[in-house]
Design brief:
Chain A has strands at residues 3-6, 10-12, 18-25, 34-39, 46-51, 58-60, 68-73, 78-83, 92-100, 102-106, 110-114. With 116 residues, chain A is mostly beta strands. In chain A, strands 2, 4, 5, 6, 9, 10 and 11 form a seven-stranded mixed sheet that branches. In chain A, strands 1-3-8-7 form a four-stranded antiparallel sheet, with no helix packed on it. In chain A, a hairpin with a 1-residue loop joins β9 (92-100) and β10. In chain B, strands 2, 6, 7, 8, 11, 12 and 13 form a seven-stranded mixed sheet that branches. Chain B has no helices and 13 strands. With 113 residues, chain B is an all-beta fold. Chain B has strands spanning 4-7, 10-13, 18-25, 30-31, 36-37, 39-44, 51-55, 59-60, 68-73, 76-82, 90-96, 103-104, 108-112. Chain B is 0% helix and 53% strand. The chains are: A mainly beta (116), B mainly beta (113). Chains A and B meet through β5 and β10 of A and β7 and β12 of B.
């Protein structure tokens, strides 16, 4: 079955960077785009961006451009989200998602806490 | 960007009653190549990732109870829960997958009256 397993909780100071991983299994990694979504505490879902693991092509949300980099390692079917210049507004759960047009398969989420 | 607007922000419904959530997109999400509305609904419970309920505006994901139904086309959509159960207490989101960036509605919280 399809699984997306994300890395664990992160605590970072303002101005730092964070890298979240998303290890996938149960499907052909290069056949589906991988998306990332942010959810701040008590808030809604905000799309961060996506990557095409086959080509490495990326598309980032305007709110994150300049601070976000998405990469993938096809040899281990894993996607990565790099976010720099963290502020308290980045305190959130980040989800990776396999896209089959819609978002059918989600990772369990990674909590990133930004605090001095 | 396509803006998704849900209404209401929250609603309280008696057990066994009907709950209806509306979602409006700022432009049509009907995709001519697939002949489908690229509109999905998700359910999210506290501490869990969202779960896909409906795609193509009206197709239930496998395993989703038939009390959940989706309707609508182009820019106006609805999610209906017919016969609310206690386990349906959640936040519900609509999302368009017609174009990038993908966008979600702000969410609707459903509670028991």
């Amino acid at each position: 079955q399809v699984q997306l397993v994300q890395s664990g909780t992160e605590v970072k100071k303002p101005g730092a960077s964070v890298k979240v991983s998303c290890k996938t299994s149960g499907y052909s990694f290069t056949d589906y785009h991988l998306h990332w979504v942010r959810q701040a505490p008590g808030q809604g879902l905000q799309w961060v961006g996506c990557i095409n693991p086959k080509t490495g092509g990326t598309y980032y949300g305007q709110n994150f451009q300049g601070r976000v980099t998405m990469t993938s390692d096809t040899s281990i079917s894993t996607g990565y989200l790099d976010l720099t210049s963290l502020t308290s507004d980045d305190t959130a759960v980040f989800y990776c998602i396999r896209e089959t047009w819609y978002f059918g398969d989600w990772g369990q989420g990674t909590l990133v806490t930004v605090s001095s | 960007d396509i803006v998704m607007t849900q209404s209401p922000d929250s609603l309280a419904v008696s057990l066994g009653a009907r709950a209806t959530i509306n979602c409006k997109s700022s432009q049509s999400v009907f995709h001519s190549s697939t002949h489908e509305n690229h509109l999905a609904w998700y359910q999210q419970k506290p501490g869990q990732p969202p779960k896909l309920l409906i795609y193509g505006a009206s197709t239930r994901e496998s395993g989703v109870p038939d009390r959940f139904s989706g309707s609508g086309s182009a820019t106006d959509f609805s999610l209906t829960i017919s016969g609310l159960q206690a386990e349906d207490v959640s936040v519900y989101y609509c999302q368009q997958y017609y174009s990038l960036p993908r966008t979600f509605g702000q969410g609707t919280k459903v509670e028991i009256k």
